[in-house]
Amino acid sequence: MDLGDDALRSRLLSLGHDPPPITDSTRGVLRKKLAELERTRKLAAEVAGANNATAKGRRTSAAAASSTPRRTSRSSAAGGSSRAAQQNRLLEYR
Hints:
By secondary structure, this protein is mostly helical. The protein has a domain of 62 residues. Helices cover 63% and strands 0% of the residues. The chain is built from four helices and no strands. The chain is elongated, with a radius of gyration of 20 Å. It starts with a helix and ends with a helix. The mean pLDDT is 78.
């Protein structure tokens, strides 16, 4: 990722990080910070997407209050992408 100083500053600002002046001694650190922020943003988007998909699958009507248990799909019963697994992956990257 060979960004010029202006592009590096712009991308960091767009991700919510206010960088110090970019010099020879800070450039490498700021590039690492940018990579970390982009990785964190990508993981957060993946988790949010999974949470939205889960929320769409929830029943909000009176049927949700019934005593009939919900059936689990084979993928989630077999250890598919559960919310807990996604959160664990997110924590591993930090």
